[in-house]
Structures are given as C-alpha cells and as structure tokens.
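Why do we care about 3D structure at all? Because function follows from shape, and shape follows, mostly, from sequence. That is the central idea of this module. The next example makes it concrete: a single protein chain, its amino acid sequence, and then its structure expressed as tokens.
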Amino acid sequence: MGKKYEVSQHCDGAMTPRYEWVRVGRVGEDVYAQVKMIYEACGSMRVIDLPPYPAGHNMGTNRMSEKSRDGVVNSWGQAHEATNLFVSDGSQFTTSSAENPTLTIVALAIRQAEYIADAMRRRDI
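And the structure:
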C-alpha cells in the first residue's frame, strides 16, 4: 500500500487531514492504522473503525453555518452566495460520525423542503 498524507492547520486552529492511497496489493488493517494515526494527529480523541461498506457518506464539504465565513450553507441548507441553491445531503454536516446519518439527512431534507415551499409562496426565492 502506497501512502501519502499530510495534516494541515488552518488559521482558525482547525486541523484537516489530507490523504491519498495508491492501492498496491491487499487493502486491510494497514489502512485503518494509517487513517487512525492521521485523525489522532488532528486531535481526535476516539477513532472508530467502520467496515468499508455501507459506510460511504460524503460529509463536511459544504459546512452548515449562519456565517458565510465559517460555512457554505445556512441552517436551511441554503447557500450563502446563491440564494436559490440548496444542499440536501450529508455534506452540510461539519464532520462525520460513527453512526449512519441517513435519518438525520432525511429529517433535514423534509424540513428544508417545507422551508423552500414557504419561501416560494412568499416569493423570496
């Protein structure tokens, strides 16, 4: 297994892992050990190993925050920079968890749909 990784610290103090795997042979415990090391280097207190399937939810790429400097979307999943753009998946979470996020994603999507319908009736979007 070829490994390439780095840990970056942002100006706000947040640590972000960046890693790339080049598959050479069998993927196994080595991957879990390396990923655990990366997350611990970022300050994780606990790292939970999950099976590779069905744990495949993309999270954290469109962070939810009331302030545009801290995130991409507001609490309704509405983009700060494009008011008619909504994010309706797990990417609006700040990070992933050890539990399946599907029910939370569905609950947020239902709440968001009601918000969008109401905003359209008011002609806000």
